[in-house]
Amino acid sequence: MDYAFWTISGITVLGALLAVTLRNLVHCVLSLILFFLGIAAHYFLLRADFIGAVQILIYIGAVAVLILFAIMLTRNVTGEAGPQEVVGVKWWIGSLCAALTAGLISFAVRADSVAETLSPGPKATVAVADIGKGFVGNWIVPFEAMAVLLTAALIGAVVIALEEVRNRR
Amino acid sequence: METIYQLIAGWFAGKPEWLPLAIAIAVPILFIVGVYPAIFAYTTLVERKALGRVQNRYGPNRVGRWGILQPLADGLKLLTKEDIVPRDADKFTHFLAPVIAVIPSVLLFAIVPIAPGLVPVNLNIGILFAFAISTASVLALFMGGWASRNKFSLLGAMRAVAQVVSYEVPMVLAAVAVVMAAGSLSTLDIVKAQTRGGLEIAGWFVFQPWGFVGFVLFAIGAMAESARTPFDIPEAESEIIAGYHTEYSGFKFALFQLGEYLAAIAMAGITVTMFLGGYLGPGIHIPYIGGFIAAFWFFLKLGCMILLNIWIRGTWPRVRVDQLMGFAWKVLLPMSILNIAVVGLWHFMGNKVLAWGVTAAILGLAFVILAKISAAGNIEKRTYRYAN
């Protein structure tokens, strides 16, 4: 278990680092996909099969493909033109934000003693049926709110696309 | 895997603990990489033979009797071809794309059950896993088209990705209907849910109105996902250039073909599992040989689905790009969403004979209306830009 964890973590971190350091945008997205896969593997390792599969389905099948589509439509994919330095003011601000976020999460995890409740016990696979029952039972309100949000986004996209069609004619 | 593990663990009592586990992992892997590529090799031969018959010619008949060694000759030919990489290509991505094209297709077989309790990996999220994995094949198309540094490759890749992404939606929604009816995402449970009463064949989902609609939707989606005729715009060998794999030669090209055919076969297997009762058939409960009879039924149904694909490829014209997208979003998507509602109705109607009639009527009416609407939009007077 430990070997699997460290190997997958190494690959995940490598993917994340490559995604922010490579110059070529398409290479960045491909590294990002490696990172997403690593996260999915972590979910599988934690026996959260459903979330792992959904991670692949949403992040690789939809988000990454969307990013790729967007990148294909931009110029300067290779990153040769434009500012060359990576380490600048923005880099420091970004690093500060990342450090603060990491600190906040680790603080929250320690304060909440989640780690103790999650420490070794019977490793049960989460049944999909339970997740489904949770969605329509206990968590119905957030679930419906998300559904409304996504529907609004979908309708908004259609409206924007319609506008373009009208302008073209 | 559990079942194989239990079986083997019984034989290896007293041996070291890791041995049965290693064998239980190795056997399904060897089965998948051994049997399905062999099916792929002979699918190409059968396809060329059948297409030959459709087009009034013989098909391959030079290599061995009935061309039986043709796949071997094809493989050798592709292996000995020069591997050409364009000078400006992105070398690493160009190399990686055909590899990534094969991996998801092979992984798909992990959840296809071939006999009672005999499935390479019994995941409780089986069907979802299949869809998650099959989305990754889009990446291979994209990487191949982009890394070639060829405008036509890139355009071909965009075309292919747009098609695959569009058809994924109705396909997944068609599968949702089955998952609702079976009450499980596990492929073994879905097959088990199709046994009903003494006359087993009546329980297959394809013989329920919603199941039949789902079957057609899913088969169309699977055909479009694996870029088979009539949805082979991503390749379209005969008229437009090949698209994303224009700049690939030799065995890298063969890997793209392998990935595509394996995906088509895997999708046929999943279609059989979800709609055609999987391994169910007469005689599967006979002791000792029942499992083999079940596997025989599964592979027979798989073969029928592959033949259906070939038959469609030989006889149907290719759809145009605008028809392709319109068909996915205006016909298949409303049908699949309605189908989900109809399954709910089916589930809550007690009298199944009445439910059969009512759901069939709803779906038939919806189909007629959709066909009228989409046909009304298409009939326009053709204007010729340059001929007038």
Tell me the β content of chain A. Answer: under 5%
Quaternary structure annotation: heterodimer
DSSP helix fraction of chain A:
over 70%
**Number of helical stretches of at least 4 residues of chain B:** 13
Which pair of protein chains has the largest interface, and what are the residue counts? A-B, 23 and 24 residues
Question: Globular, elongated, flat, extended or rod-shaped: what is the shape of chain A?
Answer: globular
Structural class of chain A: mainly alpha
How many domains of chain B? The number is 2
Which terms summarize this structure?
heterodimer; A: 169 residues; mainly alpha; 78% helix; globular; B: 388 residues; 2 domains; 67% helix; 0% strand
General description of the model:
The complex is a heterodimer of chains A (169) and B (388). Chain A is mainly α and 169 residues long. Chain A contains 7 helices and no strands. In chain A, helix 1 runs antiparallel to helix 2 (25-45) and helix 2 runs antiparallel to helix 3 (49-72). The model of chain A has no long low-confidence stretch (mean pLDDT 83). Chain B is built from 13 helices and no strands. The mean pLDDT of chain B is 85. The termini of chain B are far apart. Chain B has 2 domains: 1-80, no CATH class; 85-372, no CATH class. Chain B is an all-alpha fold and 388 residues long. The longest helix of chain B is centred in the first third of the chain and has 37 residues, at 18-54. In chain B, 67% of the residues lie in helices and 0% in strands. Chain B is globular, with a radius of gyration of 22 Å. The chains are: A mainly alpha (169), B mainly alpha (388). Chain A binds chain B through residues 24, 26-27, 30, 33, 49-50, 53-54, 56-57, 60-62, 64-65, 68-69, 72, 125, 127-129, and chain B through 90, 93, 123-125, 128-129, 131-133, 135-136, 138-139, 142-143, 146, 154, 158, 161, 165, 168, 184-185.
